[in-house]
Amino acid sequence: MPTVLITPEILIDVNGPWVPMLEQAGFDLQHPADRTFTRGLSSEEQSIETLKHADAVIAGGEHFTRTVLAGLPKLRVIARCGVGFDRVDVEAATELGIPVTITPTANHESVAEQAFALLFGVAKSLVVNDQQTRAGNWRLTLSEPIRGKTFGVFGLGRIGRSAAVRAVGMGMPVIATETYPNAEFVRKHGIELVDFETLLARSDYLSIHCPLTEETSGLFNRDVFAKMKQGSVLINTARGKIVVEADLIRALQDGPLRGAGLDVFEVEPAKADNPLFQLDNVVISPHLAGTDTASIEAMAVEAADCILQLFRGEWPSEAVLNGTLRESWKW
After folding, report:
1. Residue 213 burial by CB count (10 A; 0-12/13-18/19+): exposed, middle or buried?
2. Could you give the strand order of the β-sheet that contains 232-236, starting from the edge strand earlier in sequence?
3. Which DSSP helix (H) or strand (E) runs through 100?
4. DSSP conformational letter for 279
5. pLDDT tens by residue, 114-171
6. Are residues 260 and 122 in the same domain?
């Protein structure tokens, strides 16, 4: 009986529809003994030990390095919950004949909603006002409007498009930087495509919605922050390493940034002594943008469906990252 290891800790105590889907197909479902395994803190040796019996993995944030993958000769499929895959060495997986899938249609709305939760948190000083009011300090300070402010989107994929629609609905002009834009979407929603320099200069709220790649790693650094609009706000629900945190702190303390809303960090789980946590103009959440109650079920179902399709000899083209395996791969 083939085994599927389900690693995301949010799925360990949940008996959702993905469970009968896989069990009825003849899979044995297991979870890691250490429920925090998916946080990516295990050594390569520990990861191999945890994963070695799995034929397929519904994966969270654990690291699939070349060494780990080479130590898993039984592994046939890595089905990532979410669209990020920076913790999987896709090149090594391809060389070893292991398809890597993502869940491209499951969580884009959840991420967009969290981006706006952070945006509202900064614009309306929600955290500071909450703390002050609970402490008995009844302060009536003016907040910043959102309507009429320019919403900049860096990366107009599914998540970026979901964020853009919400911005349009709130009366915000939307500008975006995207290498391969969906022309019909852009026309329909009146989005203005601009280059990166213009995006930085004109955005009142700039929301990052790109993957972490060699090109985007550390992209938002001191030089980039210096080009952003005075009084602007950075929102990051993508990946922490896209932003150089030390440079972000300086931009928040000395300008030009008025605030930031962050769901992701350079080091995760983020530690309590992160200097960003000492700033009143930063609103934070623990990398949960893609996982609300609806999206986590949708991701688990989509990941399970990818495994089932591959098991049946089908090929979920839109979800597989290493499509070059299509002609040669067999379960």
Report:
1. exposed
2. 192-193, 174-177, 151-154, 205-208, 232-236, 257-262, 282-284
3. strand 100-101
4. -
5. 999 999 999 999 999 999 999 999 988 888 999 999 999 999 999 999 999 999 999 9
6. yes
Q: What is the pLDDT of residues 303-321, one digit of tens each?
A: 999 999 999 999 999 999 9
**132 and 280 part of one domain:** yes
Tokens describing residue 309: 């399709």
- Residues spanned by the domain of 60: 3-106+292-325
The whole model's pTM is what?
0.88
Enzyme catalytic residues? 239, 268, 287
Domain presence at residue 331: no
Report the C-alpha gap between 3 and 56 in whole angstroms. 7
Same domain (yes/no): 90, 119: no
User: Which residues touch 226 (CB under 8 Å, ≥6 apart)?
Assistant: 251, 256
Instruction: Give bridge partners of residue 286 from the DSSP assignment.
Output: none
**Shared domain check, 46 and 29:** yes
Q: What are phi and psi of 189, to 5 degrees?
A: -105, 5
Residue 101 maps to a domain: yes
Q: Are residues 149 and 271 in the same domain?
A: yes
* Sign of the dihedral defined by the CA atoms of residues 260, 171, 148, 133, in that order: negative
Placement of tokens 């009536």 in the chain: 140
Strand order in the sheet with 100-101: 28-30, 3-6, 56-59, 77-80, 100-101
**Residue 57: closest CA among 14, 15, 11:** 11
DSSP, res 39: G
Interval 212-264: pLDDT, tens:
999 999 999 999 999 999 999 999 999 999 999 999 999 999 999 999 999 99
Structure tokens at 173: 């002009």
